[in-house]
Amino acid sequence: MSQRIKINTLLQSTQTDVDVTVKGWVRAFRQNRFIALNDGSTNNNIQIVVDFENTDPALLKRITVGAAISVFGKLIASQGKGQTVEVIAETVEILGDCDPEKYPIQPKKHSLEFLRENAHLRFRTNTFGAIFRVRNTLSFAVHQFFQERGFVYLHTPIITASDAEGAGETFHVTNFDLANTPRTETGEVDYKQDFFGRAANLTVSGQLEGELGAMALSDIYTFGPTFRAENSNTTRHLAEFWMIEPEMAFADITDNMDTAEALLKYVIAYALDKNKDDIEFLTQRLLEEEKQKPQNERSEMSLTEKLQFCLSNDFERLTYTEAIDILKESTPNKKKKFQYLVEGWGTDLQSEHERYLVEKHFKKPVILTDYPKEIKSFYMRQNDDGKTVAAMDILFPGIGEIVGGSQREERLEKLENRMDEIGIPKDELWWYLDTRRYGGCPHSGFGLGFERLVLFVTGMGNIRDVIPFPRFPKNAEF
Length: 478
Ligand code: 4AD
Ligand code: MG
Prior knowledge:
Layout: H1 7-11, E1 18-30, E2 34-38, E3 46-49, H2 57-62, E4 68-77, E5 85-96, H3 112-117, H4 126-148, E6 152-153, E7 159-160, E8 172-173, E9 200-202, H5 207-217, E10 219-227, E11 240-249, H6 253-274, H7 276-290, H8 303-312, E12 316-319, H9 320-328, H10 331-334, H11 351-362, E13 366-372, E14 388-396, E15 400-407, H12 412-422, H13 430-437, E16 443-449, H14 450-458
Parallel strand pairs: 3-5, 6-10, 12-13
Antiparallel strand pairs: 1-2, 1-4, 2-3, 4-5, 7-9, 8-9, 10-11, 11-16, 13-14, 14-15, 15-16
Helix pairs in contact: 4-6, 4-7, 4-14, 6-8
Bound molecules: 4-amino-1,4-dioxobutan-2-aminium adenosine-5'-monophosphate (4AD) and magnesium ion.
């Protein structure tokens, strides 16, 4: 038997009248004759033509939607419409039966909610096949972008004893018997007896360790899972999400913005090129979905146009203060249409404000800088005005914040003062402060939320649909 060929290769084949072996899962079986077969290598199916008159009826009965089969036959130029080549089956072997009465994935449109409940099988649909191929391409492109620029991929720990964002939203890591935790004399949990001899948690960000690497390797990046116990049941939040965090020595906030903008454009262009069929499929999917909406709520651009637009326009850069002025004067603010009215300087921006700036006002991606220090993390570099820090957030249409970053406070005294002011324990972060003691230098970095990027590139509306097995409050199935 000839070696198995993947369907994407077969469909591009110019050589016909050759024997091939193809394996995959049945997507449809029409007229006891035409099998639409998919193996996940592409969104497109190969058509298998079965000579049903000369095939055992018992075998034909087992060619059902979802069954895994192996086909040996001849690749020929297709007679029918819709495909250039097809396979005339000589033998069909059932590798795995699939009971059509019970199989949840039927050849019809399923709701995304239903597919979330069947996340173990949803890879077998066109939509999720496309999403996870695009996700794969994007992660490869992230590595390629940094590798081309001489960044070192640094694996920062998943288990830590610190809270990099200082927000107290960590998951504990312990091997105590929770019904019976050892106590100190004063009645507190005695973490000295725990596995790590101290309280530990899952990381919320690899940044602090990333900074240590950058203080010797110059440019590093992390790309790994991060965990947040924030009780946000939204279409933009996960309890477990992947983050890309570059950290660059001798880089200021402008270098930081330039790198982030270049990264986003690079990976989007890469996916547009590598996943043409998938993105075209997702573009059509979104058009169909938007037909359900009233005209004024539909997007002006298709998914592909939106991605192209993002590549060919500079992101708008402005300060938080300028953004607040725009928001204060905006129609939804004046007409009290915002859920949270923008009254003055200093408040955190809500996602409705971010989306107004991006989708209505500038109509393109926006980078906001120089936020009030009160609403940002302790490590951000303090500006000379005493009020703001050298932060930068990138806001994307339909997404809101996709990147959060800053120039870091490299001046020991200023950093320590800020930690004291907001109650970040200096003794626990002695190692972080050491980099400011021993050859510290100006440096910057940012975090790109990987799932928010995948959301943008696939045009999906819910972050739970762009990670294989989403973790969120009250859900850890699969
Ligand atoms: O803005 P954040 O919290 O920044 C940091 O963690 C910094 N330490 C990054 C750095 O400077 N190295 O998170 C960065 C990005 C956000 O912009 C968002 O895209 C994503 O991570 N993000 C989430 N994505 C999904 N679910 C959540 N719960 C997220 N929280 C943040
Ligand atoms: Mg942020």
